[in-house]
Specification:
The chain is mainly alpha-helical. It has a single domain, classed as ABC transporter involved in vitamin B12 uptake, BtuC. 76% of the residues lie in helices and 1% in strands. It contains 13 helices and two strands; from the N terminus they run αααααββαααααααα. A two-stranded antiparallel ribbon has the order 1-2. Strand 1 and strand 2 form a beta hairpin. It is globular and about 65 Å long.
Length: 324
Amino acid sequence: MVGLLVLVALVVVAALVSLAVGSRSIPFGTVVDVLFHEDGSDASTIVHDLRLPRTLLGLAVGACLGIAGALMQGHTRNPLAEPGLLGVNAGAAFAVVLGIYGFSIGGSGYVWFALVGAGLASSAVFAIGSSKGGPNPVTLVLAGAAVTALLEAATQSVVLNDRATLLEYRFWVVGSVAGRPMDVLWDVLPFMAAGLLLAAIGAPGLNMLQLGDDVARSLGMTPWVHKTMGVAAVMLLAGAATAACGPIAFLGLVVPHIARVFSGVDYRWLLPYSGLVGAVFLVVADVVGRVVVRPGELQVGIVMALVGGPVFMLIVRRMRLVRL
């Protein structure tokens, strides 16, 4: 419980830093003042119109990807699993490319195409990787790899044959929380909420699933129901997050390992820990991207790829991780 309170405090600190730091830095006192008393000043406009939507979206996306990663690793019993294995990123990317190429979408229009694409791709992986007993951890990963390869090939076929589509697509595919209005968060929030609800309901059952289907069944549990619920939660959480800001690499892979060191293997605690760690991780990465190349910015997807790889190697090499 103390760990959760510390993480909540870190989330608040990270949010304040995100509101204060940018191409124009604003003192923390001023940030707190204009946050609760909008006065029309330049600082108030920057905080409310630019940085607040960006920060809230970063917190929501980071939390969703962290929890989706923990669920994915738990249901596949694979410490290297992450939400992209369900075809979420590939499905969203292909749908966005089709939207740009066929319908000339832009801006917030990416959200709905990406959300539909992520949902359809995940559903296809789920259908291919399931049997009468529900999703099978091995076949689910294999199906995800196959569907992802197919969709990535289709995506590349379109962008390499249409320059205008490539120019539009390259800005979405790097992953960024910048420039997204608050409407984007409101659009995906119901899907995030539904995913969080399914994750919370399924957390106790996920603990029993780690003992094996036969043991779980002997304890009165119906494994395929809980597996289906868990995969649906990953679809909703990762799909909504990817639709909102594009694919973010490594977050769903790294965060559960960090959270597991502090929470242990009980998924009733691991999921909230992963959500809070993911929120802090993404917002801090976004702040780093604003600082390292001033007055320009690095998109958070690039920062996560640059930081996430070395961090994950450090975790694997130097820390004694709790086994799944």
